[in-house]
Amino acid sequence: MLKWAIIFFLVSLVAGYFGFGGVASGTRTIAKVLFFLAITIFLVVLVFGVLLGTLVF
Prior knowledge:
Layout: H1 2-17, H2 21-52
Helix pairs in contact: 1-2
């Protein structure tokens, strides 16, 4: 998921450079959502791993 956030961020940078403001804005929003979703999932798995004392996966 973090990989997709980075890809959308790079697309946003390229679109912004070439003057496609709407595309840049949309991909930036998608990248932000995916990034924070990935961070949230990571923290939840980390907390459950610490609380259970074992690996979750």
